[in-house]
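REQUEST FORM: STRUCTURE PREDICTION
Request ID: SP-0412
Submitted by: Lab K.M.
Chain count: 1
Length (residues): 178
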Amino acid sequence: MNLTTIDQNPIIHSFLSIPSHKQLLEQAIYYPTEPNKQKLNQAFQLFFLEARFTSYIASLIHFSAINYDKKNRLYKDRHQLIIDHSENKDHTYTSRIPADTDTYHFAERNLQQVITEKKMYEAIQQLTDREQRILCYLYIYEMTEKEISSQLQVTQQAISKTKRLAIKKLQTYLHCPS
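STATUS: Completed
RESULT:
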């Protein structure tokens, strides 16, 4: 095994990237005494053990996360909420849902309550109420454009256009020097 083959090995390359390990190798090459060789071997064995242990822990975490996700999905698939069935035959879960389910009920929150940066707050103030409301629905309540259009009783294209113009206004305001 020549020196170029050794340097191409990733574990040896990372071992030698540590200055103290490189110094041990140089001592073992220039002064090939038994204690120098043993020091180099011990350092490499410890480094290799740590590398294998780190690799083992990383793969253990990876596969544990996969198994957790599988179990979680299996649980959700097996224990789905069936709204129109109840153990109590007198009423169903649907009887507990308000009749006006077509509208969204939110705690009063708007963009001004969420924004903490002064320049962004000032930029939001430059928008119309409609633009603010649409951005609020999109980014705070995470509604889709389709949901917002049915909520506001306008077309989805109108929501998309208003969103695009509002974002353009924000970008213009935030990029202009003040």
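NOTES: Residues 97-106 have pLDDT under 50 and may be disordered.
Reviewed by: T.R.
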